Amino acid sequence: MTEGRLGFEGLDACVHCGFCLQACPTFLATGDESDSPRGRIELMRALERGDLAVTDPALIYHLDRCLGCRACEPVCPSGVQYGHGLEAARARITAARGTTLLTRAAVWALTTPGVSGVVYWFARRLRSVLPRGIAGWGRIRFALGMLVATKGDRGRDEAVNGGRRRATPTASHRPVPPRTAQLFRGCVQEGLFSHVHEATKRTLSVNGYETREVPGQRCCGALHAHAGLLDEARVLARANIQAFGDGDEPIVVNSAGCGALMKEYGHLLGEERGTRFGTRVRDVTELLAGDGKGPVAGAPLDLHVAYDPPCHLLHAQRIGAEPLKLFAAIPLLQLVPVQGAAECCGSAGLFTLLEPEMSRAVLETKLEHLRHAAPQIVASGNPGCLMQLGAGLAAAGIHAAVRHPVELLDDSYRVAGRYE
Amino acid sequence: MSSALARDLAAIVGERHVSEARAERFTYAMDGLPTHRRVPDLVVLPGTREELIAVVRLLAALGVPFVPRGAGTGLSGGALADQGTVLLVLTRLNRILQIDNANRRAVVEPGVVNAKLGAAAKPHGLQYAPDPSSQTACTVGGNVAENAGGPHCLKYGVTANHVLALEVLLADGSVVELGSPGGEPWGPDLVGLFVGSEGNFGIATKITVRLTPLPRAIRTLLADFTSIRAAGEAVTTIIASGIVPAALEMMDQSCICAVEDSVYAAGYPRDAAAILLAEIDGRNVDGVVAETEAVTEMLRKSGARSVRSAATEVERERLWQGRKKAFGAMGRLSRDLVVQDAVVPRSALPHVLETICTIAQNYGLVVSNVFHAGDGNLHPNISFDATDPALKQRVEAASAEIMQLCIDAGGTITGEHGVGIDKLRYMHLIFDAESLGAMQAVRRVFDPRELVNPGKVVPIHACREWTSIRNAKFGMRNDTTGFNSAFPIPHSAVEVTR
To answer: Phi and psi of B182, rounded to 5°?
Structure first.
């Protein structure tokens, strides 16, 4: 981390033009400057100057209500580093007030080795008996809806049977010597979305990558960093750097939130090692898209798919075109345009649990647009988004399943007989 | 300000839409020109027209002054509220009430974002022509208050040319309708009077705007010059030729580099002293092509190093995004910024631009120019670091000198940003005390108690001067009732509800 101002210096470039306002999901939900990037920058500046106390309830309230989606960054003409400023401000707030019990409990349960294993085991048992209809708008029923949304195979039957089977592959395997990539497993992704890891390994192998397991890896630390627990995030970052070693192999990540933080380990640690690690991190769609040619084509799937780009992929990692190449590799699959697709779904890691009111307000807009677009599948490359969207769609009675983009490519390859 | 008032306001709009906390009020202390900072006492965000009316009636009954604000992208401090003043934020009044494509008009609430109105009109083959550079954020209500311009106003006219009718909430809480959606109403042009009144006459609660057909053919040219003077002369030549481009914009090197460093990089040549963006549009492709050729020829003859035409719609959009986001990219040069807004006769452009450079050099400042060249509407941006008080003084002195230069060249102190509080100090340079007094008198017709947006536009001290002159001349008492009887509310201002 930069010496001295700890990230606040990233806010200096703001000239208050307001071009970020309409990109901010929380401003769109409330129309309140205090819920906008520009307003929050004023709060953070006042905090740094000492004009507002770190314990100021209104300051904390509005900074807590920020999704951290960073949709304001790619529209900012002056390149204000909002995310870094927010992290700095949250670290100060957390240092002063401590972590709320709910945050502490959630981070503990989801990311502590030993503990989380039990939590995810129990969660998987629970989801196997829960119906989709359990999802509702109350805290508990929404959380259960999120859990149900992690079932990997629910949409698969529909997808595979809906597509036309072809006995022979449509194209030959990419003729390249196999390269290796190290798979990052993560915590939530490993606990509830291990089917996405399987799909990642299979689809990469079709595209010339052998994935290698890396023992000793830990949670990426994103949940901690976003909650202002920077020191804990740094411990995890160092452990991961250690575990993944000093090689040159790409580190493949299929969870956008993890990838975004891991690419910024250099900023988090203020160490060259972290920067080097960051340059190796690749989202799975980046590897699959190859050198712009896109992945090997699969068999047709007759599906209408809405792509919902995760904020931490689109805004934080600036990856927009690569996921579309996955869909383009699936003949017949039709991408349906969704208004406001680039806007946050309101998931934002623990945000959906900690700030349910704002989270649902942001989700509501998203669901309205999805209802209008009427896709069969909503695809998104981040576990939080899949859970949020899955629960929201179910609670709103919209019949669309949620899938990770690599799951769709995986289905397409399976139909094409690439795994036989 | 009492928290009893906050409670009463919360009873109307709901608790969460009244901001009393200091931190929340801080976020409303500035608009798009952060060199001015005023922290309001209370912030209220009504969600419906009815709530807005109820809020204003309550404030009027208590005699509490208030300031309407849209997205807060204004550049003259016009939407700042002083102590003792309530800020009415209209962003939640963001409904497009009607797109009437047969009659080519739309009815919107004041908080509708300019670009969203444009997007709603587009499927009908229509556009809302005024396109301020902040159009992705600014509201139509704010556009009406400031009579906003924009690059394409060169051909299509400014906001005033596109507003057909208004429903206006006066400071006493009464609602009047101005103008007529169907055409010219009887009597004086009250819509024209209201548009550009900077929130001094009331709050527009419903705005009926004219939509114009999208052009069938568009050509966008990028010309680059090795001297600012040559670019300025090219503008004069084009305008003098009788061709009216849809837009004719200039950016100097400092601006070009800031944009090219940003996500809005448009491929402007960094080594150019200035670029011109010229757009020709129309209903007839052949005519547009012929005029584009003529303009290209004029640009070349004026010394353009190269002239290229946007080959695709994507490239055209990039060229425009670079121009429109240039102001926001100024943060790359330094952390603080003042932007000026002056108009000069187009023939004076080459001289004025060169002199601005000289002034900047004399004060040791960085000035970046990005502006509506075709209108002669200049926007010199001065970058500086406000933590250095001596530097801040130099910036103020340079600003004043630039303004005086523009006035001496036959220009005026604002083209589209308005007077607000930023240009109060320049008003006496172009208006005498009697004219200022007359402006204030017109304002009092709408708002006798000066409750809405007090302290803006007309420098009060200059007015008082006028008042005392008048009293000496005519032996009148120093009160406001005398004014009002001289300016009765006209008949066409039909009162709808009270």
So the answer is: -90, -25
